[in-house]
Amino acid sequence: MDPRQISDVYEEVSGLPAPVGAHVGEEQLAELRVLTVTAEWSQSVVTRASRLRYSQQWTLIPDSNNRRSLRTVLSPGPCLPVSGELVSGLSPVRGLRAVVRETGGRQLLEVWDLHGLRKCLDLTALDRHGRVHDDAQFGCLSWSECENKLLYVAEQSRKKTDSRDGDYARWKDRSVYCEDWGEALAQKSSPVMCVVNLQSGTVSVLQATPPDVSPGQALWAPGGQSVIFVGWYHEPFRLGLKFCSNRRSALFKLDLDGHCERLSGDDLSVSCPRLSPDGSTLLYLQGRVFGPHSQCLSLQQLDLRSGDTSPLLDVVDRPAAGEFAGVYEALPPCCWSADSQRVVFSSACRNQKDLFMVDRRSKKVTSLSHTRSDSPEVYGSWKLLTVEKDLMVVCCSSPNTPPTLRVGFLPSAGERVTWRTLQPPVLTFDFHWSILDVTPSPEEDNSQYSGLDFGAVLVKPSHSLHEAKLPLVVFIHGGPHSQFAAEWNSFTAGLAKLGFAVLMVNYRGSTGFGQHSILSLIGHIGNQDVKDVQRAVLTALQSDTALDPSRLAVMGGSHGGFLSCHLVGQYPDFYRACAARNPVINAATLMGTSDIVDWRYTSVGLQYSYDQIPTAEALAAMLEKSPITHAAQIKAPVLLMLGARDRRVSPHQGLELYKALKSRASTVRLLWFPEDGHSLSKVDTQADCFLNTVLWLHQHL
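That's the Acylamino-acid-releasing enzyme sequence above. Prediction below.
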């Protein structure tokens, strides 16, 4: 294979845009009701080594005789670049658009109306706080009901001093260590809530937040005299927050006069507060503290008038075949129906991602994806971007169909959704994909959680490029509590276009199969999950004669890299190549360097507490379950890709395996990315990883 050809393929599949957010507007023109859908897109551009964001708008005219049907969809407007925007929000009545923008090293708060820029504040010059938070954990930008105030979260100001200021008390503290919230949240330590008064142009920092919590995901309470926020407890010290729904946190209400009260239970994990359109109910997700870092969550509803909380959806331990499998993902910013009686969300469901609606009155959950459509495509993934004016805007995709923007009205009782495609993908691909249901053998069954199965998604080129049989790449997700949905994946698509079959495995412990499946992996990493992947590969080989059993490779990142290295060590004559990104190699040596030290204990079946001191027994258990114990048996050539700034899995993990293999004259290659972290998410890093992975597979298969 020519490297230029490989790079061109990756540039094509990775450069297809995906919608990441949407807003629905409404206007009444005489007797004509007009809706506008504004979608924000993200597009990777390899030649620029960056991701571009742009917006595009559609005009929709509903049927005058049926408000839940679209009569006309006009051609979209042009794509407009969105430059430097960190967070944005639309006011509820006048449709003013607030933006925090970064330009020239400064952060500006802008307010736009129909006539252009209405207000601009230089937040950096005002110097009331540090950088504005734009991440999914803390970031927000919320309008008050009166539309005169804005609420956002920023880093607490830390004034720099030197000895010449004469402030020796502060100068001596200039080198004091400052904790942060771990992987991808470096330098985010002490967030504060900030209120902008648009009439006076002043910024104030809310001071009465409990001292032991870090606030985020803030919104105005009805009436505009108090704010509601999620507070993550940071004592005795901070643990990594990204990808972790098990951090102790609570919902708080803070009055502007300084009174603060906790609204949710104490020893719980909460996130995603969403206020109903009528202002009566607050919806939020709730989970357990510690244990699995990602879990099946309950959906709670808080009556703001009475203060009573009740579950709308409980944790699903073991879903029945074809039934709703639970909530595993964050709620979109807008998820309520206009009448405040229904809630819409997306979630993992076995090997797919589905769109669901729950009725608060009956608590009945309905899938909204299997309905009438203007498209013959079968989508493996439905992701809700927003629901406003009862119009849902979703992103649909499958392994052979890139992200597609679609809309549909919430159905009345007994009706189906009629979906309309606003923006089909530029390209579709001639791949075949299928879902495999896999059952462990009796010897591999988990006695505590017996009878669990799992699955995989198989993607193949429809026609082999050169040979009768296809080489198979086994692709393993990280987490371990995450999922490979049957959705667009540029890495998988690139491999399939180059002639490889790809098997994406959702071993027991993956999300979308119920809480029991997640819990079954605790204490069994390095064994149950390894055998599950091997069982999935054998199932695929037995069911599909187009796959070549003599040309098998394995790849994955994080826990997927952990399993990849386990597989080539435990089955040394089965796989012919391995590619691992930031893999866990030795859990015992990782314990002191990871931002989620609690998972190091939980994963091997041990309880965690903040004051935990390592014991010989705990370290032995971690070592026993680690791939490094099988390093001497590895025969397959191993490609390692490491991010030097990884806070979750230290790059010294991969270096440990690298040295073990080098000392035995085994074939190993290491790629080092000095500016990247755990996800290896930079555009040029991903292109480099794809190129080197394909060349490695081609050479050794």
